[in-house]
Structure formats: structure tokens, C-alpha cells
Amino acid sequence: MSKVVSAQEAISTYLKPGDMIAIGGFVTNRRPYGLVREIIKQRIGNLYIEGGPSGGEIDMLIGAGLVTAINISYIANSGFSQVCRRFRNAIEKEHSLLFEDYSLDVQTIAYHGAALGLSYMPVKNMLGTDLERKWGISEEERKKHPKLPAKKFVIQEDPFDPGSKLCLVPTPKIDVALVHAQVASPDGTCRINGPQFQDMDIAMAAKHTIISADRIVSDDEIRHNPELNTLTGLVVDAVVPMAFGCHPSQCFGVHDMDPRFFIKYEQVSKSGEAFDAFIKEYVDDVADHNEYLDKWGASNLLNLRVQEGVGYVPGLKRK
Amino acid sequence: MEWTTKQMMAIALSRELENGKTYIVGTGLPLIGATLAKNTHAPTASLLLESGLFEGNPQEVPTSVSDLRLNYHASALWPQYRYFAFQSVYAKRGLIDKGFLGGAQIDPYGNLNSTSIGDYFAPHSRFTGSGGANGIATYCDTVTVMKHEKRRFTENIDYVTSPGWVDGPNGRANAGLDPNKGPRAVITEYCVLRFGEDKRMYLAEYFEGCTPEFIQENTGFELDLSKAVPAEPPTKEVLEILKTKVDPTGLMT
């Protein structure tokens, strides 16, 4: 049975207001921007976010007012926005976002625990710091949010190393994982080339996984080399064909970042008004992903294709 | 002087690396300093990035720790949980020499803030948060790169993101952290600071154009100046490699 659907159908079928989502990739690398734009287009709100190494796409969800709470360790468009600006605005000015700080290691390990079906993971991190002492979301507040665990963590003596402390971190209950892959086939099998970051774990942990893919190949074709495949279709609910689906972020073996987007976003995300106009122009007023790509121009996008053997665009203008 | 402040910082950073040892680097100056070391006195030093990229040899200055430019000639691209396992296990075995960090505020014990300035819940400035820094500071010896200002070098920082020596010689053990790991150096545009027996920062080396008194004036807590010596100026050769090979477009220096 084919799982190939449009972004519109995938998001409206599997994502509900109030869900907890996790997003694949790493900051400016292989972040599934196309699927995130569809969430914004459909204004599916009250979301709980497992950010991991977050980038501008989560900043766009925050700016669009769709996020209730975020578990965070990092959010930037590195090299362009040193800290994402709608995130800053929500915390510094509007106080409109619940946030809980972890370290990236802890989030990564928690996602792995969630993929193993465990309720918590023990770590050594955060001890002796304000990550231990200060809770962004109180136990009282947590009671109002069934999607959040009752505590940020529990500190306990290591039963196998008496006298030594461990921090037990709850694993997230992810409703929907969004992942961009270079290749997928209709039955949901997919192949991520290059670094996987946390993608296998969030896909395994989530109740539903939506894949956008640069290229769709036949089920026969992708099974010629199962050793190269990342996810079996058994953990994938929907496959969305989307060339340049993680634009403006990078896609290993396919295309480099698009600095034009990140430079523009650094400017527009400085004010609510400019941000809203940007969302109108690049999300609401474009019918679909193809129209979005047209706005960036075919020749410009083709020039972002990586040079084989090097793996990026040599001399790409990044300022 | 024939060099810029940032070039001097990159050169001071590069001096923290040794041949055959393994380092965790971020982007920006630490990566420039580490790449410079690989091109000069430490060609067999190995560089790791928290995104899971092992031993890359970037030919162009990368924009982020996950930049495709860092995959060039890398030995492995691991999923992140494998990378973090490597970091904690190999650090415990003593096989990671140092990790490089940056931050907005630091206290005399090297505790570091990269989370927010002001009240945590309604901050004046909110930053990215820990990223991988907390884990690096938990498991490894560290070198921190900081902008040297009185308000950034302060007795009490607004948020402790990454542990230093906590509050003194027993601080890490009391907190449940490895007492033998911790901050080793802080590098600023003026100087290199290190940590004494009391685990407080002292002035170790000051760069050309600075005096120990000037550095004390720009530091929000008392520094021991008694061991301070002038830093060795960069050699012509090293400066040339930095300018022509490591950062030829001046993206970072």
C-alpha cells in the first residue's frame, strides 16, 4: 500500500492541536522545513516541542503563536542568527512560552530512551548547575499539561555505585516526528545519507512519523540495498515527495544551505510585523511546496547542489 | 602589531592542542584555533563535533557544528546518541584531552553561563542555552573563549549552564561530578587565565598591548596577578598560515 501523500494530507491526517512533536536534522542541516511550513499554513496550535538541536523552523512555529511549551537545549540559525529571535521575543518580552532547559546530550539520550520504550534514562549531566536547580516549568504548572512529564527529572543515588548521584530524565511521549530523508519509497522505507543526528530515535519513539523526501524511488529499487536504508516503512505513516524539502537547510549529498533565506530571516524575525508579512508571503500565499520553490528561483536552487567529492558548494556566498 | 586581537586569540587557542590527542570543538574561534594547530604543531590532533562528526578536515570555515563543510575527510558520521556515549566513556578513560566552550558570563571558578542574563523566567537577554556545553563541562577538561568585560567576569553569574570547579576544591565532588576534570584555561582578547590550587582563576599570560592592571580593571572579581607573564608573540610563519590557509577570507579573524 502506498503511503505517498501530499504535505497537506500528511499533516492534517496525523497532527492534532495539542500534540507533542519532534523534528529531525540539526540546526541548519536537514531540518524538515517543508512539513513545518504546512503546520503553519494549517495553523495547528498548542504544540509541545521536543527541540533538540533546533533551528529557524521551530522559531517560525513559535513566531506564528503555535507553541505552548518547548524542551530546549539550543535554537539558532548558526552563522546568521546566533539566537533565534522569535524565541527570544517570546521569552524576553511576551512571556508567552513555557520552556524547560536541558543539555543537548540529555535530550539526545532521552530520545534514545523513548525509542527503546523506556520511561526514563539516567545521566550524569546537569548536576551542580542551574539546569539542576532551576526548573522552567514547575510541578504545579506541569499538572495542567498532560503532555509534559510530572517532573523535569529526579535525582537519585546510583544503585550500582553507592554514593554517586544520577539524574533520571523522563523520556518524551512524542505524538508526531517530522523527518526529511534524501530517498524514500512508497511503502515508507527511507534512506538518510550522511549524519542521522537523532532522526532514527524520534521516528521510533513517535506514534506517527512523517517523512518528506527529496526523491521517491520504487519499493523494489530501495530494497536492492537494504543495508543502506535507515527506517523500515513499518515505522513510517506518510511519505511526502518534496525536492528541496529541507530548504533552506542543508541536505547531505544533495544541496547546500541557502544563505539568502537565513539572511532574510535574520532581518524579518526582528519584528512581529515583518515576521507576519514573511509568513504570509512564504507560507500562506503559496499554494504548495512547488510554488515556494519558484519564489527562490530554479537556477538559484540548482546552484546550491553540492559538488560531488567535496560535499558542499565551494565558495558559497554566506554573508 | 602585525596581528589582530582575534588572530592572537586563535593562536593562543591553538597552543592548547597537542599532537595525537583528541579535542571537542565548536565553530568560531575554537575551530579556527584547532585547525591552525593541525596545520602547524599538531597535525595528528583529532577534532570532534557534538553533531556526531568525527575528525573532519574542513577546507572552508564552517558556519555551524553540523555544516557539510565539516564532513570533508571525516572518519565517521555517527548518530548523536553514539557520539555522546563516546564523549562520556572516552573522557572517563582519559582519551579526550579538552573541550572548547564559549559563554556570556563566567565566575572565578570557571562556572559558565550560556543561557540568559537577568531573571531566568523574564530575562533581559535569552541565549541558545546549553547545546552540548553542559555535557562537555561535566565530563572533560575545558578551555573557554570569552569576551573580556567586567560584567561578564563576575563573582556571581545569572545562570550556571556548565559546571566549572563549582565553589572550590571540593565543589565538583560534592555536586556529584568527576573531581579530576574541570576548566583549565580561559582565553580572552587580552589574556590567558588559568586555575590555581584554590580552583580560582589567575592571570597566566597577557597579550601584547595589555597590562595585568588593565586586565584586573576589566574583571569583576579579584585576580591573582603574581604569576602573570607576557604571552609569547605569534611567529611570522604561524601568522602566515592562519591568514592564508586557515581563514583566508577573514570570516572569523
CATH first level of chain A = Alpha Beta
| Count of distinct strands of chain A | 11
Task: Tell me the fraction of residues in β-strands of chain A, as a range.
Answer: 15-25%
CATH architecture of chain B: 3-Layer(aba) Sandwich
Largest interface: A-B, 64 and 58 residues
N- to C-terminal distance of chain B: 15 Å
CATH architecture of chain A: 3-Layer(aba) Sandwich
Number of domains of chain A: 1
Overall, the morphology of chain B is globular
Helix content of chain A: 25-40%
N→C terminal distance of chain A: 46 Å
Task: Work out the count of structural domains of chain B.
Answer: 1
Mean pLDDT of chain A: 97
Largest sheet of chain A: 8 strands, mixed
Task: Characterize the main sheet of chain B.
Answer: 10 strands, mixed
Structural class of the secondary structure composition of chain A? alpha/beta
- Helicity range of chain B: 10-25%
Major sheet: arrangement of strands of chain B? 4-3-2-1-5-10-11-12-13-14
Low-pLDDT parts of chain B are none
Fourth-tier CATH superfamily name of chain B: Glutaconate Coenzyme A-transferase
Your description of this structure?
The complex is a heterodimer of chains A (319) and B (253). Chain A is of the alpha/beta class. Chain A starts with 6 loop residues before the first helix and ends in a 17-residue tail after the last helix. In chain A, helix 1 crosses helix 2, helix 2 (33-42) packs parallel to helix 3 (56-63) and helix 3 (56-63) packs across helix 4. Chain A is 32% helix and 20% strand. With 253 residues, chain B is of the alpha/beta class. Chain B is built from 7 helices and 14 strands. In chain B, strands 4-3-2-1-5-10-11-12-13-14 form a 10-stranded mixed sheet, sandwiched between helices. Chain B has a two-stranded antiparallel ribbon with strand order 6-7. Chains A and B meet through strand 3, helix 4, helix 5, helix 6 and helix 8 of A and helix 3, strand 9, helix 4 and helix 5 of B.
